[in-house]
Amino acid sequence: MTIDTSPPSLSVLTVPATDVQAAADFTTRPDVRRLLGSPDPATWILRGQGLLGLGRSAEFRVRGGTRFTSARVWWDAVRNAAGVDDRVNRPGTGLLAFGAFAFSPSSTVSSGLVVPEVVIGSDDHGAWVTLIRPGSETLTESDVEAAWRALVVEAPAAIETRPASETTSAASSYPTATPGALDENRWMAAVADGVDMIQAGDLEKLVLARDVVVNVGQPIDLSAVLARLSDRYDSCWTYCVRPGGIDDPDAGRLLGATPEMLIRVKQGTASARVLAGTLDRHDLPEGANPEDFAGVTLGGSDKQQREHKFAVDSLLAGLSPYAETVHGEEEPFILALPNVWHLASDVRAELRTGVDGTLPSPLELAEAVHPTAAVCGTPTDVAGGVIEDLERMDRGLYAGPVGWLDASGNGEWGIALRGAVQLDAHQARVSAGCGIVAESDPQAELAETWAKLRPMLEALPATRL
Q: How many Å separate Cα 306 from the centre of its chain?
């Protein structure tokens, strides 16, 4: 099913933020986290830099197995019809869309792309503002000024609602985290069933997820949640997007802070960060050196190393047909996060032009490598079927691609991990999964899910029941 399939004609103007008088305060410290108080934001933030989208100029929704292809066709039509004046010309400038895609083709949850009205971006070279409007009128700096004032200065929620020093407080009086599709015992039984299948030779690795539903007892303060995530998990990509649209009854706002880059494309080079193999920081013995403990426990574990290798191999298999060369480290490194340590590998590829002389788009590559063994299993087809049988839930947008792409072939698509889907004003569904191999212990895997649920439960905030 598709909605809003007719591609609109759009006018686009990107200018340096220093050219926008109304943004003078922002340009003195161009940290996009300062603008999180704006209503219905779309975000992609790393260490205060990245992209913030406000308003909506166009959107596309789709479900089913053709969701990636349908979105690419729509985006190509929008891109070809747009009139773009880009005075910055860097990745993330000009015409841009945020998006999120369901993990499974059988999901009943809408995937989609959202073209904001205003995009505020920053990188190591400076900050910029993009205005995108339906129609073919020529946009001017005055239009950008007016849009900034309407969507940032005069927005219902004021900017800088939560200074960084205040982003760890303000817990609700009634926070709860209750079981979703499966309670703990039933989920551990599912893990045991998965281990039996692996030991029987039906598959090599399986990723099983579970969900909890959080009710904070009062309206969720989105700006505060995003500020907490981006402040504490600043080495992760803080994402937020509502791909279904405000008027979609099945829509939910997807938000979180993912440590895993599914695919990044910038100026013809693709890269990815693969994570598999996890150690909870709460397991650190008293007095132990954290780096030594993580290195020995993760790096010296055959189980963790094999789980990681499955994930790297699946990424390489999906990416290699599109690449001239692929480079990756021989050994994974330890990625330290506030809640866990991961085994991590970075992969880089020089992309190959197709028969039409063009490079593959970020969305095409995201489809090619999704789902990796880090969120599905090995073999992929077998693991995907087992997941649906054992998890007893529709993953929806959890563990699917989330990110952005521009009209110049650049984009970043992370995996929607360490996140939640906001169900209504008070509730959110938080999910986490674990890689299951032959040696997996259900109780240990359950403990790992709590470690991975922790970022969102602390950010919402919520308590475990």
A: 25
Running DSSP on this structure, what letter comes out for residue 190?
H
pLDDT in tens, 113-135: 999 999 999 999 999 999 999 99
Angstrom CA distances, 35 to 40, 275, 301, stand at 12, 30, 43
pLDDT in tens, 340-351: 999 999 999 999
Q: In one letter, which amino acid is 340?
A: V
Asked if residue 215 has pLDDT above 80, the reply is: yes
Task: Give the Cβ contact number of residue 21 at 10 Å.
Answer: 12
Please tell me the distance from the alpha carbon of residue 403 to that of residue 222, in angstroms, as a whole number.
Answer: 18
Q: What is the pLDDT of residues 95-110, one digit of tens each?
A: 999 999 999 999 999 9
**Mean pLDDT for the chain?**
90
d(CA 331, CA 319) in angstroms, rounded, equals 19
Report yes or no: 120 and 63 within 8 Å, Cβ to Cβ.
no
Paired sense of beta strands 83-86 and 10-16, if any:
parallel
CA 286 to chain centre: 34
- The two beta strands, 237-241 and 253-258, are antiparallel
**Residue 193 backbone phi and psi in degrees, to 5:** -65, -40
Which structure tokens are listed for 254? 């997807």
| Amino acid, res. 218 | Q
Catalytic sites, residue numbers: 205, 260
Whole-prediction pTM: 0.92
Q: Which one-letter DSSP state was computed for residue 464?
A: B
Q: Helix, strand or coil for residue 307?
A: helix
